[in-house]
């Protein structure tokens, strides 16, 4: 796992495998929603991910300084809120649309404060993408689902900002492991209240373990490995492919078909994300999205 040379992949294949893993995990999650609900599924994913990461990384919690706790706790809470809101969106709208709208958060962060004309192009493209998805007429797209996806994107932007602060005080793997522990706090109460966790069976728990591995443990491992050698800008451009991968995964694994206009929206936001990465100085990697 973390830092083990036996499992080292070249950086670009590692990022691409991470993207495929995340979208496969999202498909597993959507299959669990009818039994566990979105909150219950998020609770299982985050709870099991935290246990696996803590067992693998074994961070020395007793040696963390007060400044490190002040950084990692809000980082973890933002991570939990992001995943909870994303699963809420995923329960209502297709996977491709949920990931596409979630990407608006880090894209907005990358463009925040910019006054260059070229960045205005990316803003217009992203706005056009959102407009193509928005249910201006009765299109059958759930409005609450769209709102939850955008809220998840806002949490993703906050998560990136807090992640920078945390990374400066705590190395990557321990930060993710401890952060995942606190990510469970805003999610577990809803999972318990919704009653989905009471429906857990050994079979569902096994699926939940697969969800944790594919959605959290494996992607975080691969992404941190890739970031050791891959320029941040290149990494972020590759991550911009996630909405396309999500739309294709939704089609292949879940039978979700997007309209031509929705596919165009995905393309607009992918181009805006990649373009902003290329033209914005000091672009931050969008690690660990949904």
Automatic annotation (TrEMBL):
Q: Does the keyword Transmembrane helix apply?
A: yes
Domain EamA positions:
144-274
| Alphabetized PANTHER family for the sequence | EAMA DOMAIN-CONTAINING PROTEIN, INNER MEMBRANE TRANSPORTER
Question: What family does this chain come from, according to its entry?
Answer: Belongs to the EamA transporter family.
The record ties this protein, via Gene3D superfamilies, to: 1.10.3730.20
Q: Could you confirm whether the keyword Transmembrane appears in this record?
A: yes
Q: Which InterPro entries match?
A: AA-Vitamin_Transporters, EamA_dom, EmrE-like
Name the membrane topology term.
Multi-pass membrane protein
What protein name does the entry list?
EamA family transporter
Keywords on record? Membrane, Transmembrane, Transmembrane helix
Q: Which domain of life is it from?
A: Bacteria
């Amino acid at each position: 796992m973390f830092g083990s040379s036996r499992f080292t992949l070249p950086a670009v294949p590692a990022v691409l495998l991470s993207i495929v893993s995340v979208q496969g995990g999202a498909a597993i999650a959507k299959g669990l929603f009818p039994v566990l609900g979105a909150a219950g599924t998020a609770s299982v994913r985050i709870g099991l991910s935290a246990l696996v990461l803590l067992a693998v990384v074994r961070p020395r919690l007793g040696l963390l300084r007060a400044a490190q706790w002040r950084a990692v706790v809000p980082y973890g809470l933002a991570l939990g809120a992001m995943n909870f809101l994303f699963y809420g969106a995923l329960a209502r709208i297709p996977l491709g649309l949920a990931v596409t709208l979630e990407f608006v958060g880090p894209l907005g962060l990358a463009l925040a404060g910019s006054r260059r004309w070229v960045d205005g192009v990316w803003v217009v493209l992203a706005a056009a993408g959102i407009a193509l998805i928005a249910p201006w007429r009765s299109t059958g797209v759930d409005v609450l689902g769209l709102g939850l996806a955008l809220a998840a994107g806002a949490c993703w932007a906050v998560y990136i900002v807090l992640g920078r602060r945390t990374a400066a005080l705590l190395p990557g793997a321990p930060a993710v492991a401890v952060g995942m522990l606190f990510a469970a706090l805003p999610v577990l109460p809803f999972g318990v209240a919704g009653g989905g966790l009471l429906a857990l069976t050994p079979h569902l728990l096994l699926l939940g373990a697969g969800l944790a591995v594919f959605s959290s443990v494996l992607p975080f491992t691969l992404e941190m490995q890739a970031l050791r050698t891959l320029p941040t800008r290149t990494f972020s451009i590759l991550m911009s492919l996630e909405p396309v991968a999500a739309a294709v995964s939704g089609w292949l694994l879940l039978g979700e078909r997007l309209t031509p206009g929705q596919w165009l929206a995905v393309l607009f936001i992918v181009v805006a994300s990649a373009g902003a990465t290329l033209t914005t100085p000091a672009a931050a990697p969008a690690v660990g999205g949904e």
